[in-house]
Specification:
Elements lengths: L1 E8 L5 H4 L6 H12 L4 E8 L3 E8 L6 H9 L3 H4 L4 E4 H12 L11 H15 L5 H19 L10 H11 L8 E5 L3 H12 L3 E6 L14 E4 L3 H4 L5 E4 L10 H8 L6 E5 L16 E5 L10 H26 L4 H23 L4 H29 L2 H14 L3
Parallel strand pairs: 5-6, 5-8, 6-7, 8-9, 9-10
Antiparallel strand pairs: 1-3, 1-4, 2-3
């Protein structure tokens, strides 16, 4: 079994390109189901975030053309976008996923949201029955690696998220948030993070919601709410408008914005953190409007402290990668371990016949089936524990000795 991965991210493509490959949760689910049906594909997981789209596939084929698969699913011309993608396989793909889950591949170094996104991608693939044992183990290893890096609190001195990075950059440019009127469009994870960050910075924050009845939608403490349909009416009094939705539709368009602003040429900052983008690029043609998309913000990962933090994170990830490599190397032992378990269970049932032989035939059959199942589970648990604790060659020798003892 071989792991292959194809992906596009902020390091190789701008938001105009990345948004062509952005998937909503439902779109990602349908795409995985379609890919799973393709010849040679044993399992797949599709990860889609603001900064990246990555497809991981478990396959028995040496050279499965992932680009063709992806282009067919996205209904996009292959040659036009292929140069923006990177393809990895084997240990390279596994190491990349571990670095990714730990936040070392993020635009904001060490940010924690990506770990939740990796877990969510695996959960969605499970719900669609698109994973296989190899991908399950790989993603669990990556999540564990990310958790260990996060537990070390190595990147506490960097900006916690893209939102915090954006606010820090605006401060450096002379924009201060105290008592400023800010409108946040979107009440998902990114929207709530933005609203909280703006409130902590001293801004007066209003959040748009689509369900207006009290109690239907939870908004961050200290924020006002308006219905999404009233956003243009609110904008003229705002100093900053931030949009971060997962909707494929634009939340801010030039024509209604121009109409709402009227002759007002006040300076306003518009921040679009969505992929696909929420705001029409043409709004920059309006007087006083400054527009930033997600690519405008990146944390400063320079300096001796950041370098030391990254080295420590890489040490942890190297250990996890070695564990994954050992698991792969010993994977061929799994059928042999299962056979040992079956033979051990068979012998136990044979020995127990001296006790169960006096029972009625129906009870003998029930007891034999229960003993067989229980024995296989116990032996399996012992062997898997040994596999996780022993060196590779020691485990092979252990299985060989058991096979010899049982004449397998």
């Amino acid at each position: 079994m071989k792991i292959q991965m194809i992906g596009i991210d902020h390091s190789s493509a701008g938001v105009r390109i990345r948004e062509q490959f952005a998937f909503t949760a439902s779109q990602a689910g349908r795409a995985m189901e379609e890919i799973k049906k393709q010849p040679g594909v044993k399992g797949c997981v599709l990860l889609s975030t603001c900064n990246r789209m990555e497809l991981y596939v478990s396959t028995e084929q040496e050279e499965l053309c992932l680009w063709t698969l992806l282009a067919d699913v996205c209904r996009l011309p292959a040659l036009e976008y292929a140069p923006y993608f990177q393809v990895r396989s084997g240990q390279d793909a596994a190491m990349h996923l571990m670095y990714l889950a730990a936040g070392l591949k993020s635009r904001v170094l060490g940010e924690g949201q990506i770990l939740s996104q990796v877990k969510e991608a695996l959960r969605q693939a499970r719900e669609r029955y698109c994973t296989d044992p190899v991908l399950e183990v790989l993603f669990r290893c990556a999540v564990t690696a990310g958790k260990e890096v996060k537990a070390k609190e190595l990147f506490v001195h960097t900006d916690a998220s893209t939102v915090h990075c954006a606010l820090a950059q605006l401060r450096r440019q002379g924009f201060f948030f105290e008592k400023k009127n800010c409108l946040v469009i979107g009440n998902g994870v990114m929207g709530k993070t933005a609203a909280l960050a703006l409130r902590e910075a001293g801004a007066l924050v209003t959040v748009t919601v689509r369900q207006y009845r009290s109690g239907m939608v939870e908004i961050p403490a200290g924020c006002e709410r308006i219905h999404y349909g009233e956003r243009y009416e609110k904008i003229p009094e705002c100093d900053l408008v931030l949009s971060a939705t997962v909707s494929p539709n634009l939340t801010i368009k030039r024509e209604p914005l121009e109409k709402a602003r009227g002759a007002c040429g006040r300076k306003q900052v518009f921040i679009d953190l969505a992929v696909p983008r929420d705001m029409e690029e043409e709004i920059t043609q309006l007087d006083g409007v400054s527009l930033y998309d997600i690519d405008a913000f990146q944390s400063d990962a320079s300096g001796a402290l950041a370098s030391a933090q990254q080295q420590e994170a890489e040490r942890i990830l190297s250990q996890k990668a070695a564990e994954w490599n050992d698991w792969c190397a010993c994977r061929d032992l799994i059928p042999r371990m299962q056979q040992v378990g079956r033979e051990a269970a068979k012998e136990l049932c044979w020995r127990m016949q001296r006790v169960t032989g006096a029972f009625p035939k129906e009870q003998q059959q029930m007891l034999s089936a229960a003993l067989d199942e229980s024995a296989q589970k116990v032996i399996g648990k012992i062997l898997y524990t040994l596999r996780d604790g022993l060196a590779r060659e020691e485990m092979r020798r252990c299985v060989e000795l058991l096979e010899q003892k049982m004449d397998i």
